[in-house]
TrEMBL record:
Keywords: Cytokine, Isomerase, Secreted. GO terms for cellular component: extracellular space. InterPro entries: Macrophage_inhib_fac, Tautomerase/MIF_sf. The keyword Amino-acid biosynthesis does not apply. Pfam families: MIF. SUPFAM superfamilies: Tautomerase/MIF (SSF55331). One of its GO terms (molecular function) is cytokine activity. This is L-dopachrome isomerase. The keyword RNA-binding does not apply. It comes from Acrobeloides nanus. Its EC number is 5.3.2.1, 5.3.3.12. Its main location: secreted. It is found in: Secreted.
Amino acid sequence: MPFVVLTTNIPDNKLPSDLNQSITQFLAGLFNKPAPDFSVIVDAGKRFTIGGTSEPAVMLVIKSIGNYNETANIKYAKEISEFVQKNVGVGNDRCVIHFFPFETSEVSRFGTTIQEYRKNKK
């Protein structure tokens, strides 16, 4: 159940119209999780600075169950930064990524927690 929010100061009309879908497919492959489990928000045109400048920038917050560790995060950072460069045109010096782990008891879908949903699905 990854939740992804890409915030940028780039106007929405300057971003690919299928960016949400591209992010979903890319991260589904990278994290080895089903694409239907992803929720993606692209929040464009924000007043956003890095280092005090308003040059094009991206902040990604990626919340996920069971993906993150010190070694994996290094791989993810590299591949996600390359994806952002290719699809948004922002280099890794202007791309901040926050990997945010959470537990199955801390998120809900289908009217229950994911923990309970998985128990009952078996």
